[in-house]
Task: inverse folding
């Protein structure tokens, strides 16, 4: 029996470890590039939203995993938000406010925190992020959808 239990542990533990590696990808948000044929300097690997769905009146974190084949010393991040296809909000940030600069060749993470007002209507939203460099007009452009739900007083997620 002891050898059977040991074999079970030897089999189960690696499977559990592998499953934890894939857990972040199961929660990742789908995204698409603004230009499907664009040859962007920055390639997006994934988008994670926490909490998901976003709770109005509470802070939300948008984490973008990306990579670049070129060093980037700075630039701008423009965030456009649409609600049912209608543009409702735009923010401009220094790229170095969203990640550490300079950005070296390889993988990096952009992290944007936002506290949405309590009066934000629940429903489906689209966020478009455009990154531009100091010398390159457009490093990347991508969009993704997210939902906003009612705060602690209501726990419904909009069907919109």
Result:
């Amino acid at each position: 029996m002891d050898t059977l239990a040991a074999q079970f542990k030897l089999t189960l533990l690696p499977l559990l470890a592998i499953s934890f590696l894939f857990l972040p990808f199961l929660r990742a948000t789908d995204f698409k590039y603004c230009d499907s044929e664009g040859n962007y300097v920055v390639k997006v690997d994934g988008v994670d939203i926490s909490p998901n769905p976003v709770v109005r009146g509470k802070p939300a974190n948008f984490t973008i995993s990306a990579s670049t084949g070129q060093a980037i010393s700075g630039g701008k991040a423009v965030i456009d938000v649409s609600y049912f296809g209608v543009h409702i909000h735009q923010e401009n940030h220094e790229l170095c406010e969203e990640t550490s600069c300079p950005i070296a060749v390889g993988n990096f993470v952009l992290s944007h925190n936002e506290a949405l007002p309590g009066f934000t209507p629940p429903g489906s939203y689209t966020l478009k992020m455009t990154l531009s460099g100091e010398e390159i007009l457009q490093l990347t452009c991508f969009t993704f959808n997210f939902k906003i739900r009612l705060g602690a007083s209501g726990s419904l997620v909009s069907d919109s």
Summary: The CA atoms of residues 148 and 154 lie 12 Å apart.
